[in-house]
Design goal:
Layout: H1 2-26, E1 54-63, E2 66-71, E3 84-88, E4 91-92, H2 104-114, E5 120-124, E6 136-142, H3 148-154, E7 159-160, H4 170-183, H5 187-190
Parallel strand pairs: 3-6
Antiparallel strand pairs: 1-2, 1-5, 2-3, 4-7, 5-6
Helix pairs in contact: 3-4
């Protein structure tokens, strides 16, 4: 009997070790930092900015899901050094105009806190980089690796939206929204 218990413990330990190795090799990391990029430290289990991400300097936060920024060096996606309007992919926050919807001011304030004027933000597109209004569509990360699209949904500032073909992180954002709703975070607790 003692030998059977020992074998069972060894089998369970081996299975747990195999699971840890498998999970670490299949974690869906978006990629490593680019040359010159800070080492991203974001929240465990969330994507870090991909190798193709590029830095932008924040000029203005319009609302909870739209900013204005300028590139440090023009590239294939942003060919001007002037300001561009950026809409965060996969999220929607309450509208601030013409009259503010519930939680619009709080969502804008949170994004301003995360991206103060002059700060660096790392941008990466999904399948399409421009919308019908000429805005650039990007996923954004702070210098410390925070995935902003997710942060805003998890805080209850934004809802997850699916706009084809830019759906790479929809499931992640949708799960964050479900958790925010369940806990009454942000707009989900304040706006009924």
């Amino acid at each position: 009997m003692k030998r059977l218990v020992t074998v069972a413990i060894v089998v369970v330990a081996a299975a747990a070790l195999a699971m840890v190795v498998w999970l670490s090799s299949t974690t869906d990391e978006v990629g490593d930092a680019t040359d010159g990029a800070p080492a991203p430290t974001g929240e465990p289990g969330l994507p870090t900015h991909p190798a193709g991400a590029f830095p932008l300097t924040v000029d203005h936060v319009f609302d909870g899901d739209t900013i204005e920024a300028r590139t440090l060096a023009p590239n294939d996606l942003v060919t001007t050094s002037g300001p561009i309007r950026i809409r965060l992919i996969g999220i929607d926050t309450p509208e601030g105009a013409p009259s503010p919807e519930c939680w619009a001011d709080e969502a804008r304030a949170h994004l301003r806190e995360l991206l103060p004027v002059g700060s660096t933000v790392w941008a990466a597109p999904d399948a399409e980089a421009l919308d019908d209004y000429g805005r650039h569509l990007f996923n954004l990360w702070t210098d410390d690796g925070t995935f902003l699209n997710h942060e805003l949904v998890a805080a209850g500032d934004a809802e997850a939206i699916r706009v084809w073909p830019n759906v790479a992180f929809y499931d992640l954002l949708s799960n964050a929204q479900a958790q925010a709703e369940a806990s009454g975070a942000g707009r989900w607790g304040a706006c009924g």
